[in-house]
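Title: Comparing notes on inverse folding

I've been comparing how different people in this forum approach sequence design from structure. To keep things fair, I'm posting one structure and asking everyone to reply with a full sequence. Here's the target:
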């Protein structure tokens, strides 16, 4: 119903930003990460002072391994939190619980460290397909994503309030186009690799090696890092493949797909 709310309540840009950010959470839970990133981008241009949208997009970029973009968003988040922390009248409870600068800075250190490794993007997550999918599935997913996220169509998701000043909307269109262009290029890169049998085979081999290394590292007895703690509590650290296989409990009884994806009301 977020889409309907956006159509019928376009007068308030902060309200529209919340709708886009909440819809992004729904896309994320369904494994539709490019859709989630696009909605976070729209939320951010509508309300530049909305930390949840910035934080969520940083996490989404981290999930597809675009660590450079994740680091850029975390720098924005840190700057915003510093400004909000210096403003009188900000609730200490909200600020300390959800916007702790130490956690944001720890996440930035981690993102910058990962960016230096220059790890390839997670092309399967970008297209929203499984590694076992067929070439036909990849082609279908690419066409859908490319059509949906073409930069020329990105601003069509915004319902313009006729009372808003033209200068604001010019800036919005420019920023939305830039964000969509980056997303569109990632989608194209993913298709370029996964649609070529030889490139895909080489990519899959490298992915298997990375996954094996990651599993070996997780097998060690290491404490949870600050950024992992933050994501666990506030962003979920979602893996769509885990979610898709979690529709049943151990006893076979169905459970809510939204279990574990709840956010505190005082932060929206």
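Reply #1:
Here's my take.
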């Amino acid at each position: 119903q977020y889409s309907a709310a956006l159509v019928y309540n376009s007068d308030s840009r902060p309200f529209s930003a919340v709708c886009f950010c909440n819809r992004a959470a729904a896309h994320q839970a369904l494994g539709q990460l490019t859709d989630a990133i696009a909605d976070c981008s729209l939320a951010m241009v509508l309300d530049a002072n909305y930390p949840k949208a910035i934080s969520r997009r940083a996490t989404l970029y981290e999930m597809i391994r675009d660590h450079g973009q994740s680091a850029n968003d975390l720098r924005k988040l840190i700057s915003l939190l510093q400004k909000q922390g210096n403003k009188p009248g900000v609730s200490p409870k909200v600020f300390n619980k959800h916007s702790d600068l130490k956690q944001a800075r720890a996440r930035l250190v981690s993102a910058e460290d990962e960016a230096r490794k220059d790890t390839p993007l997670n092309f399967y997550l970008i297209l929203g397909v499984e590694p076992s999918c067929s070439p036909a599935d990849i082609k279908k997913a690419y066409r859908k994503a490319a059509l949906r996220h073409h930069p020329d169509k990105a601003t069509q998701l915004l319902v313009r309030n006729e009372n808003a000043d033209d200068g604001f909307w010019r800036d919005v269109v420019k920023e939305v186009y830039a964000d969509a262009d980056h997303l569109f290029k990632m989608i194209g890169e993913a298709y370029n690799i996964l649609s070529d049998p030889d490139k895909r085979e080489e990519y899959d081999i490298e992915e298997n090696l990375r996954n094996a290394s990651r599993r070996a590292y997780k097998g060690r007895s290491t404490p949870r890092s600050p950024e992992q703690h933050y994501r666990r509590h506030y962003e979920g650290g979602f893996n769509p493949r885990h979610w898709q296989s979690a529709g049943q409990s151990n006893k076979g009884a169905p459970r809510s797909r939204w279990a574990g994806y709840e956010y505190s009301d005082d932060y929206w």
